[in-house]
Design goal:
Number of domains: 2
Radius of gyration: 21 Å
Distance between the termini: 39 Å
Number of helices: 14
Structural class: alpha/beta
Strand content: 15-25%
Oligomer: single chain
Order of helices and strands: HEEEHHHEHEHHEHEHEEEHHHEEHEEEH
Helix content: 25-40%
Strand order of the largest sheet: 4-10-9-8-7-5-6
CATH architecture of the largest domain: 3-Layer(aba) Sandwich
Shape: globular
Number of strands: 15
CATH topology of the largest domain: Aspartate Aminotransferase, domain 2
Length: 397
């Protein structure tokens, strides 16, 4: 079936929750996608930082195929070997002692909110329930995570929001300190804001945030849904800042494209969850956790982190060179292969022109081009992207 026919059918049957582009992907390999008409695209969006190992990575597809032939799903009333193995991998390579599995980043953040509140209630009493988050943050689409998100456009029309969240400017320790009250139980932040426009904080920001949490008996929650799993050149983005959280959430790239989320915590805090306090029917089932094990092992064992750092430095340098050439590029920032190019003009037309020329990009906050290619991207593929992008920018100049 041609792309146009699929799009017509989508218009008839699919709810309009996305402003979709006229692209119908049917095949992927590495850093490329092909649509239903056979056109090839260089993918620098990677499913919005999901396909960190590229499309259909052999280790992930083999793990999924093998597991699909053995056991796809069983209840969390039982012990699931693949889930246990993935939990062990994540805990032994992080600050955490325990993992809880679910199906998405929003669910992982929902679990973190519940755990923080329950732990604080048990330790400090019922009056400590507020969570401070950042303006321009993004934590998900459930009612709790919409309430936690510091973007009015995400919250609009869903009033009344869940009580108990306060929002302060990101990278502003003074504002954060002023927002702490006797009701505060936790601070929840993204190490780098993704949907907020690839915003990287000052080097000392999180050290001061960690100190504030320690001084006030607050939990520090890191939402690493987009920035974790090697995206910045380290397994977890907070490693760049020399501190650890009490709770961390992961999703997106954790299982190479299979739907999964997890919340990690220390033993002391995790103990607040007991049978009946939280759960997830599909969370951590054999299929997705088998994919997760393959993904994490590949990131750790195949030099992915070093490659990400190397390609990230190269891409950042080339984009900085473009900034000197085009006056409407006002800033280039990022770590590893999570890079934002801020413009003085809207970026939607650039994204559209790129699509027409076989390049997939994304625009955050209307004026920030977001580059989150697969971590396996080669210098040749980076150069291919730059050639297409430069041609588009030359037309605008």
């Amino acid at each position: 079936m041609k792309s146009s026919a699929w799009i017509d059918k989508a218009d008839k049957y699919i709810m309009k929750t996305y402003g979709r582009y006229p692209l119908v992907p049917v095949k992927g390999e590495g850093c490329y996608l092909w649509d239903a008409d056979g056109k090839k695209y260089l993918d620098f969006l990677a499913g919005v930082a999901v396909n960190n190992l590229g499309h259909c990575h052999p280790a992930v597809t083999a793990a999924l195929a093998k597991q699909a032939g053995e056991l796809i799903h069983c209840s969390n009333y039982y012990h699931i070997p693949q889930q246990i193995e993935l939990a062990e991998l994540l805990c032994t390579h992080s600050f955490a002692d325990k993992a809880f599995f679910c199906n998405s980043g929003a669910e992982a953040n929902e679990a973190a909110i519940k755990l923080a509140r329950r732990y604080s209630r048990e330790k400090h009493g019922a009056d400590r329930y507020e969570i401070i988050t950042a303006i321009s943050s993004f934590h998900g689409r459930t009612m709790a995570t919409v309430s936690a998100t510091g973007q009015e456009k995400v919250q609009k029309f869903f009033d009344p929001l869940l009580h108990g969240f306060r929002h302060v400017p990101f990278n502003d320790v003074a504002a954060l300190k002023a927002a702490i009250s006797p009701c505060t139980c936790a601070i929840m932040l993204e190490p780098i804001q993704g949907e907020g426009g690839v915003v990287v904080p000052d080097a000392t920001y999180f050290q001061e945030v960690r100190q504030l949490c320690n001084e006030n008996g607050l939990l520090l929650i890191f939402d690493e849904v987009q920035v974790g799993m090697g995206r910045t050149g380290k397994l977890f983005a907070h490693e760049h800042f020399g501190i650890t959280p009490d709770i961390m959430t992961l999703a997106k790239a954790l299982a190479g494209g299979a739907p999964i989320g997890t919340m990690l915590a220390t033993d002391e805090i995790a103990a607040a969850f007991v049978p009946g306090t939280h759960g997830s029917t599909f969370g951590g089932n054999p299929l997705v956790t088998a994919a997760g094990v393959a993904t994490v092992r590949t990131i750790l064992e195949d030099g992915i982190l070093n490659r990400t750092e190397e390609m990230g430095e190269y891409l950042l340098g080339e984009l900085e060179a473009l900034q000197k050439k085009f006056s409407f590029i006002t800033d280039v920032r990022g770590i590893g292969l999570m890079i934002g190019v801020e413009l003085s003009i809207p970026g939607a037309d650039i994204v559209k022109k790129a699509l027409e020329r076989g390049l997939l990009l994304n625009c955050a906050q209307e004026k920030v081009l977001r580059f989150v290619p697969p971590l396996i991207v080669s210098k040749q593929e980076v150069d291919e992207m730059l050639a297409i992008l430069t041609g588009i920018l030359e037309e605008i100049k």
